[in-house]
Design brief:
It comes from Pseudorhizobium flavum. This is DUF2628 domain-containing protein. InterPro entries: DUF2628. Keywords: Membrane, Transmembrane, Transmembrane helix. The protein is elongated and about 90 Å long. α2 runs antiparallel to α3 and α3 packs antiparallel against α4. 47% of the residues lie in helices and 12% in strands. The protein has a three-stranded antiparallel sheet with strand order 2-1-3, sandwiched between helices. The protein has one domain. It is of the alpha+beta class. The longest helix has 29 residues.
Length: 158
């Protein structure tokens, strides 16, 4: 079971078309292409910092005796983005005004969506019927109320 973060956009969104449901898990794409992954999520400063750190790690690998240190620095930067990238993204959305509505535990994204949206109150779309009592005045004899009833006890026309 994975946990999914449910984020709703700022303002009112009754249709929930823009609701974001993020899986709180490892990202393979962020492991191999961390700064590109951060750019796709509009995390500009984090992408710039990761890009500069990768350049610094690459330069460190060129220095004799520091090749292993540079390689480990580059791998750890990629691993950090792969593990915490989705958290960076959710925090960025929250700073922009999005609201963390719920955390859902589910096996996959479709199940998480079903669990979240099933718990929301449903708006009634059926029109409310209004009785027009002025035009439908009935007397007991006209409606057949003076005859026997259908229920368990016969009320004798009352």
């Amino acid at each position: 079971m994975k946990s999914y973060l449910v984020l709703t956009p700022p303002g009112t969104d009754p249709d929930h078309e823009k609701t974001v449901i993020l899986a709180d898990r490892f990202s393979w794409l962020a492991l191999f292409f961390p700064w590109i992954w951060l750019l796709t999520k509009r995390l500009w400063l984090a992408a710039l910092a990761v890009f500069l750190a990768q350049i610094a790690a690459g330069q460190l690998m060129q220095v004799s005796g520091f090749a292993v240190v540079g390689f480990l620095a580059a791998v750890s930067i990629n691993l950090l983005v792969a593990l915490e990238g989705r958290h960076f993204y959710s925090e960025s959305l929250i700073r922009r005004g999005w609201t963390l509505k719920d955390v859902v535990m589910a096996a996959d994204l479709d199940t998480a969506e079903e669990i979240y949206f099933a718990g929301l109150p449903q708006a009634s779309t059926a029109p409310v019927a209004v009785a027009n009592w002025a035009n439908s005045v009935r007397t007991p004899s006209a409606a057949g109320w003076d005859r026997g009833g259908i229920g368990l006890f016969d009320q004798g026309g009352r």
